[in-house]
Write a structure and sequence with these properties.
This protein has two domains: 1-36; 46-137. The protein has three helices and no strands. It has helices at 7-66, 73-99, 103-138. Helix 1 (7-66) runs antiparallel to helix 2. The longest helix is centred in the N-terminal third of the chain and has 60 residues, at 7-66.
């Protein structure tokens, strides 16, 4: 005559499997969060690198324009890249502000959205300034 297997032993195995799956899910979730933070940091660094690379180009073109030489095409292309990047950044910040549940964090994100607007206005002003410099060099007073 056979004896039935004890059910308690099987329950223990199922508990261990469930706990190991929960641990696995927690590890995957934490890894996802860390990777998302690294990606956001990498994007921010790339944006800052683009600003750092554009600034000397614009400065050089403006100084050359003051000396009488005017080829501001490098500055225009650098500013267009910055304009696109700042537009994407503003859209991401404003979307995050709309989705944020915490009122304090929402206000901070809205202020960042306003700063991104200021950045876009500054870029537009620089583009206008370059246009004026180029126009003055094209039509010297006379």
């Amino acid at each position: 005559m056979r004896r039935p297997r004890p059910v308690r032993r099987r329950r223990g195995v199922i508990l261990i499997v469930v706990l190991s799956l929960l641990t696995l899910f927690a590890i995957v979730g934490i890894s996802f969060v860390f990777q998302a933070q690294r990606t956001a940091s990498a994007e921010a660094a790339a944006n800052w690198r683009q600003v750092r690379e554009a600034a000397p180009i614009i400065e050089r073109d403006l100084l050359e324009a003051l000396a009488g030489e005017t080829d501001v095409s490098g500055s225009y292309s650098a500013l267009q890249g910055l304009d696109l990047t700042s537009s994407d950044l503003r859209a991401a910040i404003c979307a995050a502000a709309r989705a944020e549940q915490d009122p304090k964090e929402r206000r901070r994100l809205e202020r960042l959205c306003d700063l991104a607007d200021d950045l876009r206005r500054a870029i537009s002003l620089l583009q206008w300034l370059l246009g004026q410099v180029e126009q003055q060099a094209t039509f010297p007073p006379g």
